[in-house]
Amino acid sequence: MRVLVVEDERNLCDAIARGLRRKGMAVDVAYDGPSGHEMAYVTRYDVVVLDRDLPGMHGDEICAALVESGALTRVLMLTASGTVADRVEGLQLGADDYLAKPFAFDELVARVQALGRRATPAAPPVLSVGDLVLDQTRRVVTRGGAPIELTNKEFGVLEELLKARGGVVSSEELLERVWDANTDPFTTTVRVTVMTLRKKVGDPPLIETVVGAGYRVPEPVVVTPGGPQ
Question: What ranges are recorded for DNA binding (predicted)?
Answer without folding.
Answer: 124-219
